[in-house]
Amino acid sequence: MIKRVEINYRGIFQKTLAKRIGSDLVLIAARMGQVAFSNGRYSDSPERNGIPCKYFTFISPDLEEEELEAECGAKMDIDEANISVVLDDTMVKGVEPWGWSGIRPINEKMIEGGAMLVVTRHSAQDLLKFIPARPFSYNLVTLEGDASLAGLWVFKDDLTHERVLGAIAGIDPSIVSIDAVEAHLRAKTKDERRVAAAREAHDAARSHTRVVKSGEGADWHHEVPKLPGWDHFREGTVVPAVPRHFEMGPRGQSRNPTFKRGTTKTQRPVVRFDLCTKCTLCWVECPDQCFDPTDDGYYDIDYEYCVGCGKCAEVCPVEECIIMADELVFDNYDSPWEHWKRDADDYLSWTADKKGNERVSYPFVTGTGRLVTAMDSVPGVGEIKPRKETPQPV
Amino acid sequence: MTSATQQQSDVWERQDLLTGCQAVAEGVRLADVDVIPAYPIRPYTEVMDTISKIIADGRLDAEYMIADSEHSQFEIAKHASAVNARAFTGSSGTGWCYGFEALVVTATDRLPVLFLVGNRALDDPGAFGVEHNDAMSVRDMGFLLNWVTSPQEALEHVLIGYRIAEDSEVRMPMALAMDGAFLTHSQHIVQIPTIESVRRFLPDYDLGDRRLHPDNPISIAPQVNEDWVMEMRRQNWGAARRAREVIVKAYEEFNAVYGPRYQPPYYFTEYMTDDADVVLVGLGTVAAPGRTAVRRLREQGHKVGYVNLRWFRPFPTVELRECLSRFKAVGVIDRDFAHGSPDDGGILLHEIRSCLYPAKNRPAVVNFLSGLGGRDISIQDCEKMFDLTEKAARDETMDGYVTWIGVRAGAGSSNYLAAPAH
Predict the structure, then answer these.
(1) Same domain, residue pair A268 and A191
(2) How far apart are the C-alpha atoms of A285 and A322, rounded to whole Å?
(3) Is A391 part of any domain?
(4) Domain check: are A202 and A338 in the same one?
(5) Which residues contact A306 (CB under 8 A, 6 or more apart)?
């Protein structure tokens, strides 16, 4: 018997976290007398900021290591997942890995009766608006928390690691038992706080399990790319170019239809066009050329290609003009400029709703430096003020 | 028996969860390597990440130098080795090829640098996956060249590798090859030996009267034009031949310290071959699905076995001929290509057919080009290879036949990562 655990994580920001969870699962399973090993999905390129990636752990109580390796190790992707961990809830919208294989459902590898463990502050019901329906029933387990996004290469050490281990024990004790998790953490860290975090998550996972019925969930409309055989493409390592064109207005620039990268984002920029001074900085500075100039001098955003890097919000000189908001509160990639042109009042109330009135900043590169500040007031229509400095910790 | 068990339990310090690259780094620490030039390229890079951390943690005292390219990297290692410093370096794919000039002279100058080659497909097109052509490029240059199949074996072959490479009868560079991704990046539990046990097994590096030092005034590799080259080639040819005996000796000595971990003939391992009619032969991690396919087919009554070739240079000609001529047919798995070669097959195919030519009983030999560029080779793929090899055992006309396994054909086949229906 083989139990397979996949850990969906955001490239670079959660790489160390995912690897530590995967590695500890092996060590804890070994402590229980099981055979296990782990690896990352090799076709991923987890150095790319935010790119959806996977880490795997394979555990067996009865197979030889070589047989487990043959079944699970000598291949590029996991066959199926008994547990699919999602370290950032915005990945429930779909994941487009760096290796070219299209936008895939987050529960693509889920099996009947398996479990998806999502670190989130949203409810299971909210998540199911995005998670595609499957023709069988499985469990959706929510572990309350923010996506643990650390600085480049850095491990945030905010107990997400220990909590996920505890939650996995809560979901399937045959993979790792909570006793073994606790014994491992105690031996490794001698820190009872970590042991307690795992225990708390173990109990919480059991009480936050939602059975997802067959057919329950969202429609899925992304197709898996079909790759041609050796006898059906040009010789000489030649690939056809993306057709070039440009016109003013939404989606007016040619972009690569086979690698959109929109599932890379955890947040997206929300623009108040009424405050925009047409300074061009967002358009100039966007590393992915996601802004389309419009014939009235504004810059529309193609959210399907935006990776949520936040550069536009960083360079925008106007208070509240571009704000990054949680990707999970949006349900489409529609053009914001078209919305504004269609009904400016409706658009402004939409932006206020999406942005909320809390502004999150990350003043520390490492550690737990998440700073939430309440917004004083919403600027009125056309009320242009220079942007305040990013709040600094006191 | 008691003393052997006692001896074995003394030699292991601890166990840890390590990737293939990390296991090699532990081997480098235990071998007390002196000079380590680094330059990054996936998938071998993690060995250098790990070594730099080991040095920073104070667990190894070594010169760690960041070179400006693979060419400089290999030159630094070569020169360090010439002054009697134990040197370790490595690369992957095109990085390995970029330093090729320096690799060739390291072999010509008979300097026992140990290189890790994390096998990677050669560009173009850009790809990270395993293919053996990178390491194979040094096969004729005077390198020791072998493949390992697990992190444990990788760690142990750093030690065994230096033992062979530095032997006064040999003094050749060694390329320790491991499959990119499937071994370089896969984490397994590894037993780590004590440094005392390693000292018992691995003697200090001593280049003797060839050591480049002011007290020993010599010049290495002057311009010789046509007067000397052929004689030097003859010397190096002899060293490569002598290496075969030293390899056997090294494993025997390793077993003496660590218990019977390796069985004769050491160059390769046989799995369920005793009464086999047909076998597959491969290099590297394909052994796992290959041997698993053997177990499954045996349950259905097929007399099949698997031969994992550990040493490619020097090639174990006599031993492998003796082994393979016992079977009716041999399926050779090549994770490499040799376009336009005699059989239009892979490199290993030609080596094995050549090795079998003088055999009294020549089995039919068929070839599988498989797993190129990191494409996985599944248990089912191996079962298919066994099926074709069994067919070759019945049909003489199939000798030399080459089959592509796992290549996509047709207009719009689905991606091999295809999603299940939703």
Answers:
(1) no
(2) 13
(3) no
(4) no
(5) A262, A265, A268, A269, A288, A290
B9 and B73 both lie in a single domain: yes
Residues A118-144 pLDDT 10s? 999 999 999 999 999 999 999 999 999
Q: Which residues in chain A belong to E strands, given as ranges?
A: 3-10, 35-40, 52-60, 81-86, 110-120, 138-144, 209-212, 267-271, 291-293, 299-301, 322-326, 358-361, 371-374
Q: Which residues pair with B160 in a beta bridge?
A: none
Residues of B in contact with A38 (CB under 8 A): 17, 186-187
Residues of B in contact with A30 (CB under 8 A): 189
Closest CA relative to residue A320, chosen from A272, A373, A251, A268: A272
Q: What is the pLDDT of residues A334-363, one digit of tens each?
A: 999 999 999 999 999 999 999 998 887 776
Contacts of B287 in chain A (CB under 8 A): 66
In the predicted structure, residue A245 carries a pLDDT above the cut 70: yes
What is the nearest CA distance from A305 to chain B, expressed in angstroms?
A: 22
Interchain contact, A66 vs B292, CB within 8 Å: yes
Residues B145 and B224 in one domain: yes
3-state DSSP call for residue B299?
A: helix
CATH code, domain with A36? 3.40.920.10
CA-only gyration radius of chain A, Å:
23
Residues B281, B147 share a domain = no
Q: Which residues of B touch A39 (CB under 8 A)?
A: 19, 181, 185-187
| Cross-chain residue pair A237–B124, CB shorter than 8 Å | yes
pTM across the whole model: 0.92
Domain count, chain B: 2
Dihedral sign for Cα B226, B228, B234, B239, please.
negative
Show the domain range for B30: 2-258
Residue linked to tokens 């440094």: B195
- On whether both A25 and A159 belong to a single domain, the answer is yes
Q: Are residues A32 and A105 in the same domain?
A: yes
Q: How far apart are CA B242 and CA B247, in angstroms?
A: 9
In this structure, how many other beta carbons lie within 10 angstroms of the beta carbon of residue B71?
Answer: 17
Shortest Cα distance from B171 to chain A (angstroms)?
Answer: 34
Residue A370: count other Cβ atoms within 10 Å of its Cβ. 14
Residues B307, B175: one domain? no
Closest CA to A107 of A217, A30, A184, A269: A217
* A70 → closest Cβ in B292, B375, B422: B292
Which residue, A173, A196, A212, sits at the end of a domain?
A212
Q: Are A227 and B415 in contact (CB under 8 A)?
A: yes
Structural domain ending residue among the three candidates B211, B233, B258: B258
* CATH code at position B208: 3.40.50.970
Q: In terms of domains, do B228 and B303 share one? A: no
Task: Say which residues have a Cβ less than 8 Å from residue B44's Cβ, sequence separation at least 6.
Answer: B21, B90, B91, B92, B95, B116, B117, B118, B120, B180, B184
Range of the domain at A338: 262-374
Judge: A226–B124 Cβ closer than 8 Å, yes or no: no
Determine, yes or no, domain membership for B56.
yes
Task: Classify residue A85: in a domain, yes or no.
Answer: yes
If one counts the domains in chain A, the total is 2
B interface with A, Cβ–Cβ below 8 Å: 17, 19, 43, 124-125, 128-129, 180-182, 185-189, 285-289, 291-292, 295, 374-379, 407-422
pLDDT tens by residue, B179-221:
999 999 999 999 999 999 999 999 999 999 999 999 999 999 9
